[in-house]
Amino acid sequence: MKKLAITLSVAAASLLSVGGALMVPTAAQAQRGVFVEVPPPPPRHERIPPPRRGYVWAPGHYEWRGGRHVWIRGMYVRARPGYAYRPPEWRERDGRWEYRRGEWDRDRDGVPNRYDRRPNNPNRY
């Protein structure tokens, strides 16, 4: 009986160690941007509706979904006082295209707050 308990505990420990090696990345480990080899098509022309108080226009853009570029229509997003909205963009880097989603920037320096050493620097703007 004691030998069976030891065998089961060793088996369970080895399963746990294998399970740790096979872990799938979680959202916390997600990449900062999407990199693809295919450049996005030219932006589409879209009619911007009249301004809405308390909202900011987020222009239409292409996202990479299902192995291809998909157009996402522009829309109004609720404004955040003290922040500037940076729309999504595609940038070419080393022959590949990087997609960065739209973000809010507190000090309007162009660096997203989560990557900015001093996101509330009073000497900027």
Automatic annotation (TrEMBL):
Biased composition (Basic and acidic residues): 101-119
The entry's keywords: Signal
Signal peptide from the UniProt entry: 1-30
Superkingdom of this protein's organism: Bacteria
A Pfam family of this chain: WXXGXW
Region (Disordered): 101-125
InterPro entries for the chain: YXWGXW_rpt (IPR024447)
Name recorded for this polypeptide: YXWGXW repeat-containing protein
Organism listed in the record: Variovorax beijingensis
